[in-house]
Amino acid sequence: MCAMRMRCLLPFLCGPVLAAQEVTLGLVAEAWYSQVLDSNLRLNQAARPAGAAVYYDGLNSGRFAENGFSVKRAEVYLSGQVTDTLGWAAMFDPNAAAAGPGTSLLADALVTWTPIPGFSLKAGQTKMPTAYEGSLVGSKDLLFFDRGQLNRLLGEVRDRCLWLMYTLRPAKGGQVRFNLALSNGTSDDGSKGRNNDLNAQKDWTFRIDGDWGRAHRWGVYYREGATSLKDSNLTAAPPATWTVGAPTREQVLQNRDRTTLAGLFYAYDDPVWHGDVELATGLLGRRFPMLFAAGSASAAPLREHLHQRYAACVLSGAWKQGPHWFTARYDFMDYNAGRDWYTATNPYTTDPATGLPTGRDHTPRYTEITVGYNHLFLPGRPAAGKLKIDYIHRSRNFLVPRPGQSGEQGGDSLVVSLMVGY
């Protein structure tokens, strides 16, 4: 990233070792225009079993439900080196207020200590070492208007952590990184990990990733945690409609909304072609909780099974011709891969009140197919700025039909994005 460098005196920190340090400033700004191509997205209600959450993330945020202009990103990056072994980095997002009241503008804040070559210790707030696009691809380098479903939900959220990393450089070139992080486990609450913990429980994350030559990148990862709520203030209330093998209140409490993420990825990139693939699975857990704070007004379970498992797959590609890049992505997310529920009938195909078939299937299995065009303002520096035009085609199973309609409903969008970064 091109950077503007400023110098500031830090004698109180560095003494005679380092009388001044360089601070690097970087900026990324991005604006969207979203055009709904089917009025269903504006007018239809999101499909879900009675009392359950809306699984499809675009409907949770409302960003695909209307035509309009929006500011997607306004990111300010700062970093510096205090000594040869001690550095820091921070990122502020003034647009974070759009995510909800009380959301901190501080996205990343990391102190990194490298006591010996190859070994580093990081402490602070950042994304955990998991999904490829969410944690390893910066916003200025994205091929599409936004990250895919897997990375939007699981990969790009922050947490406060202690993170150990060891980098091994084999004699034949490339490098392999071993990452182990211990974090609060608050990344799936309303603050998106930008707050302190309420309980003693911690998440742990492990990833091995590496580079092979200049074109290949790969990795495998695993994360596990549980509820972020205070242990002494938990409540659980399985609904009366759960009649087949349903857990007791005590079993729900003991499960503590166990949450996991396991995945692997591979990416290839050269001056003409780019391709990447990622697969992931795990337990939904606290992302769609069964546990709530005592007295909560929304204490109905937000998933259909205690051990509800998701599965995701994303496949992306780009053909680069100077300033013109042509892109495509297949993006799949299944929020109940095991087809598990406690009701007597399928909650996605029957009426929860009567158990009778509805004539439609709202299984939370969503596909987005995106085709796009990127125009680079500086072909030699893709991250400096680009115009992106993306058509998003969605599977037809995430909206309830309005009166006069029948069967599954859905809707497509066109998003135009203008990004600049330095």
Write the layout of secondary structure elements.
Blueprint (H helix, E strand, L loop, with lengths): L3 E6 L1 H4 L5 E17 L3 H4 L1 E2 L10 H5 L6 E14 L4 E7 L13 E11 L2 E9 L4 H5 L12 H7 L2 E11 L6 E9 L19 E10 L3 E10 L8 E2 L13 H7 L3 E11 L3 E11 L8 E2 L15 E13 L2 E11 L30 E12 L8 E10 L4 E2 L12 E9 L1
Antiparallel strand pairs: 1-2, 2-4, 2-21, 3-20, 4-5, 5-6, 6-7, 7-8, 8-9, 9-10, 10-11, 11-13, 12-15, 13-14, 14-16, 16-17, 17-18, 18-19, 19-21
Q: What is the residue-mean pLDDT, rounded to a whole number?
A: 88
| SSE topology string | EHEHEHEEEEHHEEEEEHEEEEEEEEE
Task: State the helix count.
Answer: 6
What is the number of E strands? 21
The largest pleated sheet is described as: 16 strands, antiparallel, barrel
> Any idea what the shape is?
globular
Between the first and last Cα atoms, what is the distance in angstroms? 6 Å
The percentage helix is: under 10%
Proportion of beta-strand residues: 35-45%
Spatial order of strands in the largest sheet: 2-4-5-6-7-8-9-10-11-13-14-16-17-18-19-21
Q: Enumerate the spans where pLDDT stays under 50 for 5 or more consecutive residues.
A: 1-17
Specify Rg, calculated over alpha carbons: 23 Å
Specify the structural class.
mainly beta
Descriptive overview:
By secondary structure, the chain is mainly beta. The protein contains six helices and 21 strands. The strands form three sheets. The chain has a 16-stranded antiparallel beta barrel with strand order 2-4-5-6-7-8-9-10-11-13-14-16-17-18-19-21. A two-stranded antiparallel ribbon has the order 3-20. A hairpin with a 2-residue loop joins β16 and β17. The longest helix is centred in the middle third of the chain and has 7 residues. The radius of gyration is 23 Å and the shape is globular. The N terminus is likely disordered.
